[in-house]
Specification:
- The structure is a single chain.
- The chain is of the alpha+beta class and 264 residues long.
- It has a domain of 168 residues: Protein Transport Mog1p, Chain A, CATH 3.40.1000.
- Helix content is 19%, strand content 29%.
- Strands 4, 6, 7, 8, 9, 10, 11 and 12 form an eight-stranded antiparallel β-sheet that branches.
- Strand 6 and strand 7 form a beta hairpin.
- The chain starts with 6 loop residues before the first helix and ends with a strand.
């Protein structure tokens, strides 16, 4: 007759068998990749005994970058309409061009896209290097120089007339805190037989500038004269900003230049 082992002995034998089975279980091989969240950094997860795994080699390492050291053609070029509502350029950076000035025509006039103009003799022409600028003039004055930039954005323009006018006026602050739109003079007119909008305002000129372009501007006692002139090729944007004394002294000359516009 076989005697049954006591319950305590059976329990001890079972525990021993389980411990032996666990010690014989197959261990993972060394060098297994750590979790995906860690392998990119080449470090093993916290609490793991797995060795750090190096990041995979860069297949392009050591290959010459054909663009390394090449100047960014857009650096320092400003987009005056970046971020503006209705701006078809979406804040894109204008392309840089070789320096260019307006061509002189046989009758002494200057060619400006589909127009020809007569510029005052005391205005200095500056070469433009942006695809969005058609012309750049420096105007002298006892209060300091003013600058007239003529922008052209293609046949589609750059948003509605109100978009552009509001953006220009928003760059001016009034001493009494009222809206520059209320303080501005906005006139519907024609130049060269084309529909145009003429704008003037004074105040503190505050322009935040653009990344990579000109820095912020904050100048008191400034003035704006501007015009948006339609053409068969799309609108042209004339923006004159400078010290109020200079702009006031150049107002008649600016208006005479606009009146001189002729379609070629």
């Amino acid at each position: 007759m076989t005697r049954c082992a006591p319950p305590i002995a059976l329990a001890f034998a079972l525990a021993s068998a389980l411990a032996l089975g666990a010690s014989c279980k197959k261990q993972p091989p060394k060098g297994d990749l750590p979790p995906a969240t860690d392998w990119q950094s080449g470090t093993a997860p916290a609490g793991s005994n797995a060795p750090a795994t190096a990041a995979p080699p860069n297949p392009h390492a050591g290959v010459d970058n054909p663009h390394a050291g090449v100047d960014n053609p857009h650096a320092g070029v400003d987009n005056p309409h970046a971020g503006m509502a209705g701006d078809p350029h979406g804040g894109s950076v204008p392309a840089q061009t070789g320096p260019k000035t307006l061509d002189k025509l046989g009758d002494g006039r200057l060619a400006l896209g589909p127009f020809s103009i007569v510029a005052p003799a005391d205005w200095t022409t500056k070469p433009v290097t942006s695809s969005m600028r058609a012309a750049d003039f420096v105007l002298p004055g006892k209060a300091g120089e003013a600058e007239l930039i003529v922008y052209y954005f293609g046949s589609g323009g750059a948003g509605s007339i109100d978009d552009n006018v509001n953006r220009w006026l928003d760059q001016f602050q009034q001493p009494d805190g009222k809206s520059s739109r209320d303080a501005a003079r906005i006139e519907k007119i024609k130049f060269a037989g084309q529909d145009a909008t003429y704008v003037s305002v004074t105040g503190r000129y505050v322009n935040q500038g653009m990344p990579g372009g000109g820095g912020p501007v904050d100048k008191p006692d400034q003035a704006l004269l501007a015009a948006i002139v339609g053409s068969p090729s799309g609108p042209y944007y004339f923006k004159l900003v400078g010290p109020k004394g200079t702009v006031d002294a150049q107002t008649k000359a600016f208006r005479a230049m606009l009146d001189s516009l002729k379609l070629q």
